[in-house]
Amino acid sequence: MSGSPRPLSAGSTVGDWLDHPEGGALLRELITEGGADPAVLAPARGLPLRQLAELSQGRLPDEVVQGLVRRVNGGLLPEEQPESGWRERIVPDRFTGRTVVVTGAASGIGRATAARIAAEGGRVVAVDLAADGLTSLAQETGAAPVPADITDPAGVERILAAAGDRVDGLANVAGVSDDFSPAHEVGDEMWRRVFAVNVDATMRLIRAVLPSMLDAGRGSVVNVASEAALRGSAAGVAYTASKHAVVGITRNCAFMYGPRGLRFNTVAPGGVATGIARDLQWSEFGSERLREFHRLIPPIATAQHLAASITFLLSDDGVNINGAVLPSDGGWSVQ
Ligand SMILES: NC(=O)c1ccc[n+]([C@@H]2O[C@H](COP(=O)([O-])OP(=O)(O)OC[C@H]3O[C@@H](n4cnc5c(N)ncnc54)[C@H](O)[C@@H]3O)[C@@H](O)[C@H]2O)c1
């Protein structure tokens, strides 16, 4: 609101850059030179500039970001400023003594969730198709990596074997997007794949950990849905239907097992800066129809923002919350 602007670095948010007199002009100029409308930056206001570069798939290389930082600081690369905006605050021991299975742990929201649980003392069984991502997570956090396809019952067996007799928590984070295709276009293959990962595997993993949780008389499951579980204007028909199904699974399990000491909740993320939609060819019809609604959504979040919501519900801090669908979307759900 007042005073001189903070010095800008690669850790400053896109919002800080845009609001800075010289930084804003330089960043807008760069985007325009790249042939895009600077308005594309609006959803990324909350992200550190460095993360925008990571997500740009080479369109905004690191050297260009460094050049921008130099230019706005009179030719010098300033000492790294602490990142502006929100920062993750680890709650020591929140998961100490707990074994938590996290799917999708090699990337995005699952990785951030696994890292946070490990940092808070939990034993993490980290599951993903992508073995490389799991190896680096394991090196950084001590999580136990289980490369597995969650749509394969043999993969689920391996996950249970790695977890051992006692599973205290399950974060069903792995998921796949659709291509925004509406019902008249969606192919059987797309439908099957989206349901196999987002719905069937979620159910199968819950079924697999239930005996251990019922035995212990306690356990916490968080299923990751999406804004597409709350509305029809977020994605294509397959993804929308699959995430509505995730809410149905959550509510039924919460009802059935609440009296046995188990809690089941859903987090519904809005836009999050991850690689989920990296290789998709969007349906023209679907994207055209969704575009004007997507333009209005709040700025996208980071994976760590989502890990904060997921670990809250997963941990004992979520005591007394069962069957909830928590939008973690910067307010998209009230639009
Ligand atoms: N990114 C967003 O904007 C957004 C928005 C709403 C909901 N979500 C949901 O959040 C969850 C995490 O997505 P993300 O954005 O972190 O995406 P991501 O692509 O970064 O991570 C998803 C991970 O799931 C793994 N995975 C996919 N299929 C698998 C399978 N069959 N077996 C094992 N692992 C598998 C992938 O390898 C990947 O590492 C998903 O359920 C997604 O639907 C994401």
TrEMBL record:
Keywords: Oxidoreductase. The keyword 4Fe-4S does not apply. InterPro entries: NAD(P)-bd_dom_sf (IPR036291), SDR_DHRS6-like (IPR051122), SDR_fam (IPR002347). The keyword Oxidoreductase applies. It holds the Pfam family adh_short. PANTHER family: DIHYDROANTICAPSIN 7-DEHYDROGENASE. Belongs to the short-chain dehydrogenases/reductases (SDR) family. This is NAD(P)-dependent dehydrogenase, short-chain alcohol dehydrogenase family. It comes from Amycolatopsis ultiminotia.
